[in-house]
Amino acid sequence: MQKYASEYGATVFLGTAAEVTADQIAMALRALSGDKLKRQEIAVDRNPDAYGFSFADESHNLCVKDEKSILKLAGEKKIKAITSLISEVPLPTIGAVSRQLGLPCISQKSIEATTNKYKMREIFKENGIPNPKYAQINIKLNNVLLTAEAIGFPQVIKPIKQGGQRGLFKIRTKKS
After folding, report:
1. Over the stretch 66-109, which tens digit does the pLDDT of each residue have?
2. CATH of domain 2-112
3. Bridge partner list, 11
4. Are the C-beta atoms of 108 and 95 separated by less than 8 Å?
5. Would you list the domain boundaries of the chain?
6. Cα dist. 73→17, 76, 123, 139 in Å?
7. Among 14, 34, 160, 174, residue whose Cα is nearest residue 83
8. Region for residue 86 given its phi and psi (left: phi exceeds 0; alpha: psi -120 to 50; beta: otherwise)
9. pLDDT tens column, 16-74
10. What's the CA dihedral at 35, 37, 38, 40 to 10 degrees?
11. Can you give the pLDDT at residue 141?
């Protein structure tokens, strides 16, 4: 990251204004651009009261998934880097905008692995990283039951594209 900071310069764009501390923001920005560069932090969140807005030099009420609006803002502000703190939700937007503006960014494969739990598990499996048993299932009840019986209990069911604990269910037995 330090290499990119010295090459690309001053403005850092925060892809989310999620609840983070000032120390976390400062640490991420130092890692990206070092203490020597002058920088401006621009935070984006659809919540006008987002906690991260208080730490940014400038804030905009935009959805972090709105690629068109983020690209427009990034172009107007002539950003030099775009990142997200805490959340994987803005990663597809960050990747698309960064590629369109010629900015450094993680690979599309990394973005997909981060935002899709099934793809992440498949990459783990391909690389010999220990994994619990898993399956991608169609939501129809008979498919869920057949897959659940094949994997065994207890198990955790989670949507492929939800972050944190959203949509998470623990199933202890077939009857539950």
Report:
1. 999 999 999 998 888 888 877 788 889 999 999 999 988 888 88
2. 3.40.50.20
3. 40
4. yes
5. 2-112, 116-171
6. 15, 5, 34, 38
7. 14
8. left
9. 444 444 555 555 656 655 555 566 788 888 888 888 888 788 889 999 899 999 999 99
10. -80
11. 58
| 3-state DSSP of the chain | CHHHHHHHCCEEEECCCCCCCHHHHHHHHHHHHCCCCCCEEEEECCCCCCHHHHHCCEEECCCCCCHHHHHHHHHHHCCCEEECCCCCCCHHHHHHHHHHHCCCCCCHHHHHHHHCHHHHHHHHHHCCCCCCCCCCCCCCHHHHHHHHHHHCCCEEECCCCCCCCCCCEEECCCCC
Distances from the Cα of 82 to the Cα of 41, 60, 70, 114, 144, angstroms? 10, 14, 10, 17, 39
Distance of CA 114 to the CA centre of its chain: 7
